[in-house]
Design a protein that fits this description.
Mean pLDDT: 81
Structural class: alpha/beta
Number of domains: 3
Largest sheet: 6 strands, mixed
Helix content: 55-70%
CATH topology of the largest domain: ABC transporter transmembrane region fold
Order of helices and strands: HHHHHHHHHHEEEHEEHEHHHHEHEEEHH
Shape: elongated
Strand order of the largest sheet: 6-7-8-3-9-10
Number of strands: 10
CATH architecture of the largest domain: Up-down Bundle
CATH class of the largest domain: Mainly Alpha
Low-confidence stretches: 318-335, 585-589
Length: about 600
């Protein structure tokens, strides 16, 4: 859904808020622009010697009443439009976030996180400002221009024409400045994205920067990007600085024409003194929208650039969504079915060499299968294709008889739990990290998952136990503890399929084998796929698949593969030699 479509939907849904705000603005402009007519009447009566205290008092009271009405209506109209801007901001952020987290991995890899953050904050703020305050200010300015000109023409078409002569340069100047504003804002938004990405990258790698004493290097990089951003903003300031003085000069020239030519017309009896004063008041009212037009153009161009940047994410996601969820969506018929892979060949976007080549496998429901092989053999890629983190070719992976590319993503992933190779822990309590996977879980269920992951002694040793607050990205835990906490979070929902992408690589071999075997017994009757670079930890599995260079090398149980598969024997022997040479090297954290 494009940005404009989201805003249009909000206008239809909250039409009463927009209509109320615009109505209040229209009425207050009518009241505000009638005040010079009352002043004109009072001056003309004074000039003609027809004024009396009672009549002047009534006019003064009417002016006060109009001013109070304007104040009340402004208190209604302006907040209504600002509230609408906040509604647009809320809905844009919701759509943007929902689409970003659902983007396929291939799209995420092309988009730096800092750039996405800049679009989600700076750009959506610009759109919110234009949709709320900008819309209110634009309507205000347009009504002032139209109504003031109507009153001026009604009083004196000739003087109105003379007053408008100096303003003939405004359309040309406005168009010229509009183009320059757009170019400046585009550069500012790009430099802001680069600055945000550099900040995020430095904060994520702060420990590495300190360890290798890279502070000076990162400072220079940040200073260069900050200077670029400053230069872009200064260029915008220079462009903006020209606009206000020129607009002010134009309005002052118009005032000079009114007092010069209008004064002469008053002497000749063509205008009254009150009309000259009212005419001058309307010209002063015209000054505000004319001078303010520079800000509104600036705001519009900024919002236009931001809409384009936000749409790039939304459109990218729509394209990915269409591929992921075609028009005819076939639901997952039964969770108790086999996983079947038929002639799967997969190549990463932008690469020429396939990662997996002609893979055909069957993982029977209720069994535990291991995937082993050298680094780069395609084990992790296969798991990511099963969850559609990367999109597999159609007709290659099935759950039962259903092609997973024809399933709704939420339906597919609701049947799968996956622990990634790199554990990620949120800066929150242990309880909240676990409940993320299963919000309805009881404390007993949380402790069962922790026990299955072999983390119970460490958690019970903490003073706050489940309510212990973890540091940034779980840095208060060791690598092995983070890995086991993530494993506990993965197994907590007890879904029908469990995919483990070597999540216990930071745990010692014996602990890994013990935890994985316990999980196999705990999940008896459910499907488990386990990737590990240590084959001895997987000897208990019902079935073992050996991959090499993206091809299927062999499959069978541990005893059969020891006899028949040379590569598997080499992997086992390498693990045994490593354990003898350094038995304490793989101790858990």
């Amino acid at each position: 859904m494009r940005t404009i479509a989201i805003i249009t939907k909000d206008v239809r849904k909250y039409w009463w808020l927009v209509a109320g705000g615009l109505t209040a603005i229209f009425v207050l402009e009518m009241l505000a622009l009638y005040s010079p007519q009352l002043i004109k009447k009072a001056i003309d009566r004074l000039a003609a010697g027809q004024a009396d205290p009672h009549g002047l008092g009534l006019i003064a009271g009417a002016i006060v009443a109009l001013s109070l009405g304007v104040a009340v209506l402004r208190a209604v109209g302006r907040p209504s439009m600002l509230a609408f801007g906040r509604i647009v901001e809320r809905d844009l952020r919701r759509h943007f976030f929902a689409r970003v987290i659902a983007l396929p991995r291939s799209a995420i890899d092309k988009q730096p996180a800092g750039d996405i953050m800049a679009r989600a904050t700076y750009d959506i703020d610009n759109i919110r400002l234009a949709a709320g305050y900008g819309c209110q200010a634009a309507i205000n300015s347009i009504l002032t221009l139209i109504l003031a000109l109507v009153y001026m023409i009604w009083m004196s078409p000739v003087l109105t024409l003379l007053a408008m002569v100096p303003m003939g340069a405004i359309p040309w100047l406005t168009r010229r400045q509009s183009i320059r504003f757009h170019q400046c804002h585009k550069s500012i938004q790009e430099s802001f994205s680069a600055l945000t990405e550099e900040s995020r990258d430095s904060l994520n790698a702060i420990r590495l920067i300190k360890v290798f004493d890279l502070t000076a290097v990162k400072d220079r990089q940040f200073d260069r990007l900050a200077q670029t951003h400053l230069d872009n903003n200064m260029q915008l300031a220079r462009v903006s600085a020209l606009y206000l003085p020129v607009m002010t000069l134009v309005t002052h020239l118009s005032q000079a024409v009114v007092w010069g030519c209008g004064g002469a017309m008053a002497v000749l009896g063509m205008l009254t003194a009150g009309e000259i004063v009212a005419f001058s008041a309307y010209l002063v009212m015209l000054k505000t929208p004319l001078v303010y037009s520079g800000y509104l153009i600036n705001l519009y161009q900024r919002a236009k650039s931001s809409c384009t940047r936000v749409d790039r994410i939304l459109n990218q996601f729509i394209e990915a969504l269409d591929k992921s969820s075609p028009g005819q969506v076939v639901p997952c018929q039964d969770k108790d079915t086999d996983i079947v892979i038929k002639n799967l060949t997969f190549t990463y976007p932008g690469e020429s060499r396939p990662v997996l080549t002609n893979i055909s496998l069957r993982f029977p429901h209720g069994t535990t299968t291991a995937l082993v092989g050298p680094v780069g053999s395609g084990k992790s890629t296969l798991l990511q294709l099963l969850t559609r983190i990367h999109e597999p070719p159609q007709g290659t992976i099935f759950i039962g008889h259903t092609d997973i590319t024809q399933m709704p993503l939420h339906r597919l992933r609701s049947t799968i739990a996956m622990a990634a190779q790199a554990p990620f822990v949120f800066s929150d309590t242990i309880r909240e990290n676990l409940l993320l996977a299963f919000p309805q879980a009881s404390d007993d269920q949380l402790w069962q998952a922790i026990e299955a992951a072999g983390l119970t002694p460490e958690i019970r040793a903490l003073s706050q136990k489940l309510d212990s607050l973890l540091g940034e990205k779980g840095q208060t835990l060791s690598g092995g503890q983070r890995a086991r906490l993530c494993l506990a979070r993965t197994i907590l929902p007890s879904r029908s399929m469990l995919l483990l992408d070597d999540p216990l690589s930071s745990v010692d071999t014996k602990a890994e084998a013990r935890i994985l075997e316990q999980l196999s017994h705990l999940r008896k009757g459910l499907t488990n796929l386990i990737v590990s670079h240590r084959p001895l930890s997987l000897s208990f599995c019902d079935h073992i698949v050996v991959l090499d260079g993206g091809c299927l090398e062999a499959q069978g149980n541990h005893d059969d593969l020891i006899k028949t598969c040379r590569l598997y024997r080499q992997l086992v022997l390498s693990q045994q030699i490593a354990a003898k040479l350094n038995p304490t090297a793989a101790m858990s954290g």
